[in-house]
Design a protein that fits this description.
10 strands, single chain, 43% helix, 10-stranded mixed beta sheet, alpha/beta
């Protein structure tokens, strides 16, 4: 399937990527919200990453005798097996808790799925049947004090070919959303996708623009507003000069936005918010969920 041309299945499922981080409950709550809005079944996915499931073991084989070496290797193999079994038990426990929470939140037909491998490989393998991925901003191994984003998040943003909802730490009711708009083909596609999907229907809508409203942008904004109005929205537009990242973050706070919609790829200043060095800053600084579309 091409990464530049794809069709999101109307009967696709919501896939919530669950780990042991403090974002796990938020991921389920946001996924349950999306499940209800889209009338789509929910899958809670937990991936046992082979690279992190086992701790590295030093090799002392050159310093010991053959008999001792054999016994040591057997012991290390058993320790690896124990760690693997413990990781699987923890994963099943996480998924059991997640599905129970999803049921309580009103998700449709929640089920659990545990896989081995990497998250991005698993997600891309399963994405043909997925309508929306939901993932936490940070994973269980991230140093929160340093404000880093999870490596799985960045790899997944670049790897999957589906909309991806990046959750905030806690869920709050979503009543107002904003689209980061710059008139590019990517952000025009965002508007089109928002209009076509029931996910955000009935919510207050804003278009946030960083820069000056020249004739070309004014024309693009006009078309975007017409499309949104035809889809039943009542869009409000905010055009603010300045750095795109800072304008978006400031306006999200001032307008009390509950969810930000952005294009995952593009060819303007907005592009750098997702695939450039500003990606980390925007997602780290923005305290609300971000829906990434491509």
């Amino acid at each position: 399937m091409s990464k530049t041309a794809y069709t999101i299945p109307a009967d696709g499922r919501i896939m919530a990527c669950v780990d042991a981080s403090i974002y796990a409950d938020s991921v389920i709550d946001h996924a349950a919200w999306a499940s209800k809005r889209l009338d789509a079944a929910l899958v809670c996915l937990h991936v046992l990453d082979r690279e992190t499931a086992h701790s590295p073991t030093a090799d002392y084989s050159g310093n010991i005798g053959i008999d001792t070496q054999s016994a040591l290797l057997e012991e290390l193999a058993e320790l690896d097996a124990q760690r693997s079994r413990a990781a699987m038990r923890q994963g099943r426990s996480l998924l059991e808790r997640a599905t129970k929470r999803a049921v309580s939140a009103g998700a449709i037909e929640p089920e659990a799925l545990q896989r081995h491998g990497s998250l991005v490989e698993t997600a891309t393998e399963l994405e043909d049947d997925v309508r929306l991925f939901v993932i936490g901003k940070r994973g269980e191994s991230v140093d929160f004090n340093k404000g880093h984003l999870g490596a799985n998040l960045e790899r997944t943003v670049r790897g999957v070919n589906r909309p991806l909802l990046v959750t905030s730490r806690k869920f709050r009711p979503i009543e107002r959303f904003a689209i980061a708009f710059d008139g590019s083909a990517t952000t025009r596609k965002c508007v089109e996708m928002v209009c076509m999907s029931p996910l955000l229907k009935g919510l207050a809508c804003h278009l946030i623009v960083a820069g000056s409203e020249d004739d070309k942008l004014r024309e693009s904004l006009g078309r975007a507003r017409q499309e949104l109005e035809a889809a039943g929205f009542e869009p409000r537009t905010v055009v603010q000069p300045g750095d795109a990242e800072q304008v978006i973050i400031d306006q999200v706070g001032q307008l009390d936005i509950d969810l930000l919609v952005m294009g995952a790829y593009g060819h303007s200043r907005i592009r750098h918010l997702i695939v450039g060095s500003t990606t980390t800053s925007v997602l780290r600084s923005c305290m609300i969920p971000v829906l990434l579309l491509r």
